[in-house]
From TrEMBL, chain A:
The gene is ftsY. Keywords: Cell membrane, Cytoplasm, GTP-binding, Hydrolase, Membrane, Nucleotide-binding, Receptor. One of its GO terms (molecular function) is GTP binding. GO terms for biological process: SRP-dependent cotranslational protein targeting to membrane. Its EC number is 3.6.5.4. It catalyses: GTP + H2O = GDP + phosphate + H(+). Its main location: membrane. It is a peripheral membrane protein. Belongs to the GTP-binding SRP family. FtsY subfamily. Part of the signal recognition particle protein translocation system, which is composed of SRP and FtsY. It is found in: Cell membrane; Cytoplasm. This is Signal recognition particle receptor FtsY. It is an enzyme of class 3 (hydrolase). It comes from Paraliobacillus quinghaiensis. One of its GO terms (cellular component) is plasma membrane. The lineage of its organism: Bacteria, Bacillati, Bacillota, Bacilli, Bacillales.
From TrEMBL, chain B:
Its main location: cytoplasm. Composed of three domains: the N-terminal N domain, which is responsible for interactions with the ribosome, the central G domain, which binds GTP, and the C-terminal M domain, which binds the RNA and the signal sequence of the RNC. Residues 270-283 form the SRP54-type proteins GTP-binding domain. This is Signal recognition particle protein. GO terms for molecular function: 7S RNA binding; GTP binding; GTPase activity. It comes from Paraliobacillus quinghaiensis. Its EC number is 3.6.5.4. Pfam families: SRP54, SRP54_N, SRP_SPB. The keyword Lipoprotein does not apply. One of its GO terms (biological process) is SRP-dependent cotranslational protein targeting to membrane. Belongs to the GTP-binding SRP family. SRP54 subfamily. It is an enzyme of class 3 (hydrolase). Keywords: Cytoplasm, GTP-binding, Hydrolase, Nucleotide-binding, Ribonucleoprotein, RNA-binding, Signal recognition particle. SUPFAM superfamilies: P-loop containing nucleoside triphosphate hydrolases, Signal peptide-binding domain.
Length: 329, 450
């Protein structure tokens, strides 16, 4: 079975099974029907497999912010295959491209996309990321979702640095109807988080969502501060934090890989929330992150409303990546 | 980081192309492939890269190779010139309106850093230009956005005009300007809500504000980490609002910032400022030259070469070389050498210009202290002529005297003597291995400190 058929099949079954959200659908509707015919076109445009063909393939993937190295590796592998199997006709290469693409997008299927929430005990989720990616907004949305599921949620305002950050979380707390633990602006974030954990315990909360200040990953002191915050949580509750979610802006380019690496090193990131996917950015860099660091994407942010947070659907995501770029051809 | 790999490869390719004469097509082809990768890795949009590489190819093929450069370096020189050209000249002026107040509108995607930049810009206007700005909180959507601007205003002691979240942003802007006139503010900076460039309603709102207040500047605030999508964002904002300039934020991170090039290429609007930190005085003028080097991801090889050519006295260099060979290198030569290095500018800058220097073992975390150089100088100058010629003369009482004379501890004198000894040994080895290569001399320049 060809890749395009596989992908299409996989996508349609996914749709049946999980009911891919309307937003995904809206984003993809234009291209879904003609998806396989268009990728056929792409291959058909090139009769022979030459440098130009590979250059085009590279560009198509790079345009979606798939890591340059990831793309180069893929193309190298393809070139080797072409030599090995002595492929001259681009049509014959289709199958090979298919396999390789599936490899990237499918990744290790065993990496869990589920968020680790304890059934019977307090779960702590720590949110980390650079400035302006949407940590606080994501927390608000997630609090809403969890509350809808009947969980008792507490938020803790660990961003004591940015002007208005505490107030922003408080507004979300009011909107959703959950408690927000805070201290004055400028206080020690680790101390605030400590308070949060204590309060969540004593109030019998199911989930504690910890906000932290945005920080660029090359600021060593700030990264150390984050490690300290995590240690405080670890000390208070064995096994916590149950998730460390790196919030990543989908418009970010190659730097996202550096973010994932550095934040992982200091806080052992367990998953990614890819935000602002409702724009034109594709967030393809998460493929590179997944390939290199094995960190799965768990949620995607698709807007500014409370219910604009979706579980990540790898099939729909990859479909979006490829569908759009093929449309351009 | 991945990009170091690319910079290294660029270096490798450059080294391979060591022939002289004209830059051949093959040279250019090999180099441009690497340049293309470097630019893509830096997040420059692939279409922009394509055009760019084409231009470089056209310009570079057939060029005479400068005396001191290899064809590889020559191509990089063209690349850098083209990059700097594309980035535009120094342009960080802010418009001044004939009729006060001058109005600046800040626009951009969510999380780009508009509110922080608004504060920084106001601070800069007041501090550097002696202006009296008024900040306007027109972001009624994001929770606590107004609060954020008000906090910043308090920190800076600059007034903020706000009407809460129920007012219409167009009204807020209009009334803010009336208020500014009343209170004799000469600048009004409007902080608008972050929005997606594809959100028609919100883009409409910006257009309405613009039509109403007729701003003198519309600044698009862009996150320096933005990837391929930067062109779409910049193009849309520019089409709909005819922006007058760009502020690139979060440049204090480790991103290469290729978005800068993409934005400049598609909008042809100047990048005026760069956000360099979270503090409110960390807004700097944008330097196209520096950005070009940063995007290319290799230290500023050419500036180094240029500096070396300007400042190193060729004759002295030759003397030094022969002395190194015969291992008759003395403390006097050492002093000379140090003076030459110092002529080339601050040591840290020099190191930064050497590609790969940041990952050299030991060098990575070395904080170069110019003071140490002064100390070394003092120690050497406290030696007698004889001692400088022949360090073997040193004994405890001489060392004590030198220490006293230079005001440094004896241990430091000892350290310098030891280092000097090791250096001499190293030089001997280096020159030996060089002459061992069938008399073939090392290529390129000899830097006195390497």
């Amino acid at each position: 079975m060809s890749f395009f058929k596989k992908l299409k099949d996989k996508f349609t079954t996914t749709e049946k099974e999980h009911e891919v959200s309307d937003k995904y659908k809206a984003g993809l509707s234009k291209t879904r029907d003609s998806f396989s015919s268009k990728i056929n076109n792409l291959v058909a445009r090139y009769r022979s497999v030459d440098e130009d063909f590979f250059e085009d393939l590279e560009e198509i993937l790079i345009q979606a912010d798939v890591g340059v190295m990831t793309v180069m590796d893929l193309v190298e592998e393809l070139k080797t295959e072409v030599k090995r199997q002595n492929i001259k006709d681009s049509a014959d290469l289709k199958e090979v491209i298919s396999e390789k693409l599936v490899e990237i997008y499918a990744g290790d299927d065993d990496t869990s996309e589920n968020v680790n929430i304890q059934d019977d005990d307090l779960s702590v989720i720590l949110f980390v990321g650079v400035n302006g990616v949407g940590k606080t907004t994501t927390i608000g949305k997630m609090a809403y979702q969890l509350k809808q599921q009947g969980k008792k949620v507490v938020l803790v305002a660990g961003d004591t640095f940015r002007a208005g950050a505490i107030e922003q979380l408080e507004v979300w707390g009011e909107r959703v109807g959950v408690d927000v633990i805070k201290q004055a602006a400028g206080s020690d974030p680790a101390a605030v988080i400590y308070d949060g954990v204590k309060a969540a315990k004593s109030r019998g909360a199911d989930v504690l969502l910890c906000d932290t200040a945005g920080r660029l990953q090359n600021k060593v002191n700030l990264m150390n501060e984050l490690s300290k915050v995590k240690r405080v949580i670890e000390r208070e509750i064995p096994g916590a934090p149950h998730e460390v979610l790196l919030v990543l802006d989908a418009t970010t380019g190659q730097n996202a890989l550096s973010q994932a690496k550095t934040f992982s090193a200091s806080t052992n990131v367990t998953g990614i929330v890819l935000t602002k996917l409702d724009g034109t950015a594709k967030g393809g860099i998460v493929l590179a992150i997944r390939k290199e660091l094995k960190i799965p994407v768990k949620y995607v942010g698709l807007g500014e409303q409370m219910n604009d947070l979706e579980k990540f659907d790898a099939n729909a995501f990859v479909y979006g990546l490829f569908a759009d770029m093929i449309e351009q051809e | 980081m991945a990009f170091e790999g690319l910079a290294d490869r660029l270096q490798e390719t450059m080294k391979k192309l060591t022939g002289k004469g004209k830059v051949s097509e093959q040279d250019v082809k090999e180099m441009t492939r690497e340049v293309r990768l470097a630019l893509l890795e830096a997040d420059v949009n692939f279409k922009v890269v394509k055009d760019f590489v084409k231009r470089v190819k056209e310009r570079a093929i057939g060029q005479e190779v400068m005396e001191s450069l290899t064809p590889g370096q020559q191509v990089i020189k063209v690349v850098k010139e083209e990059l700097t050209d594309l980035m535009g000249g120094e342009q960080s002026k802010i418009a001044v309106s004939d009729r006060s107040p001058t109005v600046i509108m800040m626009v951009g995607l969510q999380g780009a850093g508009k509110t922080t930049t608004t504060g920084k810009l106001a601070n800069l206007l007041r501090k550097k230009h002696n202006r009296k700005p008024l900040l306007v909180a027109a972001d009624i959507y994001r929770p606590a956005a107004i609060n954020q601007l008000e906090t910043i205003g308090r920190q800076l002691d600059i007034p903020v005009f706000a009407m809460g979240t129920d007012a219409n942003p167009v009204d807020i802007a209009n009334q803010a300007i009336a208020k500014a006139k009343e209170d004799h503010h000469d600048y009004v900076i409007i902080d608008t809500a972050g929005r997606l460039h594809v959100d028609e309603n919100l883009m409409d709102e910006l257009q309405q504000i613009k039509t109403n207040v007729k701003p003198d500047e519309v600044f698009l605030v862009v996150d320096a980490m933005t990837g391929q999508d930067a062109v779409n964002v910049a193009e849309s904002f520019d089409e709909q609002l005819d922006i007058s300039g760009v502020v690139l934020t979060k440049l204090d991170g480790d991103t290469r910032g290729g978005a800068a090039l993409s934005i400049k290429a598609v909008t042809n609007k100047p990048i005026k400022f760069a956000g360099m930190g979270e503090k409110l005085d960390e807004l700097e003028q944008f330097h196209p030259e520096r950005m070009a080097s940063r995007i290319l991801g290799m230290g500023d090889v050419l500036s180094l070469i240029e500096k070396a050519q300007e400042n190193v006295d060729e004759k002295k260099m030759k003397d030094l070389e022969s002395k190194m060979r015969s291992a008759s290198f003395t403390f006097d030569d050492f002093l000379d050498q140090m003076a030459q290095v110092k002529n080339m500018g601050p040591l840290e800058d020099l190191l930064g210009m050497i590609p790969g220097a940041n990952k050299m073992k030991g060098l990575k975390n070395v904080q170069l202290d110019e003071k140490q150089l002064v100390h070394v100088e003092a120690i050497i100058q406290s030696m007698t002529k004889k001692e400088r010629q022949d360090p073997n003369l040193m004994n405890a009482s001489r060392k004590k005297r030198i220490a006293k004379g230079s005001g440094r501890p004896v241990s430091e004198v000892n350290r310098l003597l030891k280092q000097f000894d090791e250096m001499k040994k190293m030089m001997k080895q280096m020159t030996n291995s060089q002459s061992g290569k069938k008399g073939k001399k090392g290529k390129g320049l000899n830097f006195p400190f390497m």
